């Protein structure tokens, strides 16, 4: 093996994805650590928790200086860098080009809500939870963060294939678990199965579609038991998954997530909404697909077919071992880390001022001023009067394309203010 790599994963650890990978990298002989800002509410194992509650920007500077001194590969998660906010008098994410200047390699993994844009999600997913929830993400901010990483990262990864709609030049890495933490057990299935649902957030899992279907099946007299488990520690959820026969992950996301992977690792039947991108990326995944329009009929057929459930349960662990086990992901990442570095395009990232909504007005004002100068220049060239008629309002003096831009920005800012007042 070549010389060990010095690798930092930061500054978030969603669903312990960074932690699982780092532990696998260490088993391969590399010096790898995961650092996170502030305490992790799920208490995932990390190498360092860095408190930023004091508001002292020196925390970022000290963390940054130690990182560039100790590590050659910096792998970021969840659209964060070591300078995530406008602290310390520098723009967010400003450190990304500095790593590249210093010869470091920069990578990013996107996990879902960090890259998901509502306008695209509504177009691509017929069961988008944005249709029924009050979640209103800042699409413009998200798109800008993605573009900064696309500019400076050597390579990027997504944990699900449908996220390529938001980060088109990324690679699908897939979600990861450490299979050693899930002891093998027999793929048993009871004739009267226990169906388990463990949503992390009901609105993003389609729970509101599942519960009526469950009640309807009970009314029909179908023989099964049902357990809804929410807000419990991961160890309790793990025990419930291993004890269940059928584990319902989600009805709307379009792919199978960590709960499904854990169910398959436990030789249990995973149920999730599988759409075309996930089916193409993972054609061998033994996940029983449902959606809100057919969930009742699909669950009836699954619960009533003991042999089908046994067949799905028997195939699950092998699929996880081949596709989602931590050593598999670690080997892929090492190959990426040791590949030649991608050159950065010959330009600075444009409009790198702030991600705050109020500051975006600056860009609109620049566009308006530029449009005004172009209009005056065109009038001079055409021999027309430079001064516009007095009966025109300031708004009317602007070209129609610019007025449309201004209206869109005014509407967005008004919505942002209303949301803040409603909090």
What is this structure, in a nutshell?
With 423 residues, the protein is α/β, with parallel strands linked by helices. The chain contains 15 helices and 12 strands.
Structure report:
The chain is α/β, with parallel strands linked by helices and 423 residues long. The protein contains 15 helices and 12 strands. The strands form 2 sheets. Strands 3-2-1-4-5-6-7 form a 7-stranded parallel beta sheet, with helices on both faces. Strands 9-8-10-11-12 form a 5-stranded parallel beta sheet, with helices on both faces. α10 (276-281) links the parallel β11 (269-272) and β12. α1 (17-27) packs across α13 (326-337).
Q: Tally the structural domains.
A: 3
Any low-confidence stretches, pLDDT <50, length ≥5?
388-395
The first-to-last residue Cα distance is: 54 Å
Taking strands numbered 1, 2, ... along the chain, how are they ordered across the largest sheet? 3-2-1-4-5-6-7
Assembly state (oligomeric) = single chain
Strand % is: 5-15%
Known CATH architecture of the largest domain: 3-Layer(aba) Sandwich
Number of helices: 15
SSE topology:
Elements: E1 6-10, H1 17-27, E2 31-37, E3 48-50, H2 58-70, E4 73-77, H3 95-101, E5 105-110, H4 118-124, H5 139-152, E6 155-158, E7 171-172, E8 194-197, H6 202-205, H7 207-220, E9 225-228, H8 234-243, E10 246-248, H9 258-265, E11 269-272, H10 276-281, E12 287-289, H11 295-304, H12 306-323, H13 326-337, H14 361-381, H15 400-422
Parallel strand pairs: 1-2, 1-4, 2-3, 4-5, 5-6, 6-7, 8-9, 8-10, 10-11, 11-12
């Amino acid at each position: 093996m070549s010389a060990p790599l010095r690798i930092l994963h930061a500054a978030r650890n969603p669903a312990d994805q960074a932690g699982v990978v780092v532990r696998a990298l260490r088993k391969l002989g590399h010096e790898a650590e995961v650092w996170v800002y502030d305490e992790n509410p799920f208490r995932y194992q990390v190498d360092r928790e860095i408190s930023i509650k004091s508001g002292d920007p020196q925390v970022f500077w000290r963390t940054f200086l130690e990182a560039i001194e100790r590590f050659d590969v910096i792998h970021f998660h969840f659209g964060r860098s070591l300078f995530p906010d406008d602290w310390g008098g520098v723009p967010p994410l400003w450190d990304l080009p500095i790593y590249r200047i210093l010869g470091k390699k920069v990578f990013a993994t996107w996990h879902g809500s960090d890259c998901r844009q509502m306008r695209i999600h509504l177009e691509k997913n017929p069961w988008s939870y944005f249709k029924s929830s009050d979640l209103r993400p800042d699409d413009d901010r998200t798109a800008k963060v993605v573009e900064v990483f696309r500019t400076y990262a050597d390579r990027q990864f997504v944990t699900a294939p449908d996220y390529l709609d938001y980060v088109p030049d990324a690679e699908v890495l897939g979600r990861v678990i450490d299979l050693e933490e899930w002891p093998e057990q027999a793929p048993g299935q009871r004739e009267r199965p226990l169906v388990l649902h463990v949503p992390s957030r009901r609105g993003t899992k389609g729970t509101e579609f599942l519960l009526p279907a469950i009640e309807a099946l009970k009314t029909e007299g179908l023989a099964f038991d049902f357990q809804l488990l929410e807000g419990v520690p991961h160890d309790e959820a793990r025990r419930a998954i291993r004890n269940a026969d059928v584990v319902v992950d989600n009805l709307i996301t379009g792919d199978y997530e960590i709960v499904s992977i854990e169910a398959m690792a436990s030789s249990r039947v995973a149920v999730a909404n599988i759409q075309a991108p996930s089916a193409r990326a993972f054609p061998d995944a033994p996940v029983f697909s449902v959606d809100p329009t057919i969930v009742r009929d699909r669950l009836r057929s699954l619960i009533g077919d003991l042999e089908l459930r046994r067949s799905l349960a028997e195939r699950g662990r092998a699929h996880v071992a081949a596709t989602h086990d931590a050593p598999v992901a670690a080997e892929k990442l090492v190959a990426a880390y040791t590949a030649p570095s991608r050159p950065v395009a010959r330009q600075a990232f444009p409009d790198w001022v702030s991600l705050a909504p109020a500051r975006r007005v600056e860009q609109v004002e620049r566009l308006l001023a530029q449009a005004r100068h172009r209009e005056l220049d065109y009038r001079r060239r055409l021999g027309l009067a430079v001064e516009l008629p007095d009966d025109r309002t300031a708004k009317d003096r602007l070209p129609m394309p610019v007025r449309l831009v201004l209206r869109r920005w005014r509407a967005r800012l008004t919505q942002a203010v209303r949301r803040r007042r409603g909090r």
